[in-house]
Amino acid sequence: MYVLISVLLLTSCSNSTDITDLQEGDVVFIESRSSQSPYIKVGTMSKWTHCGVIVNTPEGLKVLEASKTVRLTPFSSFIGAAKNENWTVKRPAQKLQQPIKYSKYIGMPYDLEFKFDNGKMYCSELVWLIYKDQGIELCEPRKVSSFLFARVPQVRKLMDKRGISMDQYAVAPVDLYKAIR
Fold it and tell me: Which residues of the chain have pLDDT under 70?
């Protein structure tokens, strides 16, 4: 049933990804419908505003994502949340050497401050950290000040309210997207 639903979703998308070929470690990118998505889209000059990583669970492959909390989401539900059916899957060239130990992340709260090492996670940080834990750095984190949205006064107000520093480092979905060939 799951494969049938996924195939039906696939045929309605402009995406050419063969979902029967999904593997643990594949990174799924979507154009999110979240309230912060327009800021991420403009600030990173990319339609990819949310991402997750495919993990192998006892129930089969799911997407590990940081949304309200870190959680496992069925693939069809994850891509079903994409605005305008914009989604894609990319497979990093460097393969993971061991299964993803995702249980330690489940339930972690979403990180509105976009900071590393604070007990919270945002989507691209989670994907980046999954690989970093296995010695693979998909991309280099960059200063928040390098993102276009950091120069927009209304966004700067929101950043200040959330405690986001211009000097802190972050990883955006587009950084992962560009780094994975």
Answer: 1-18
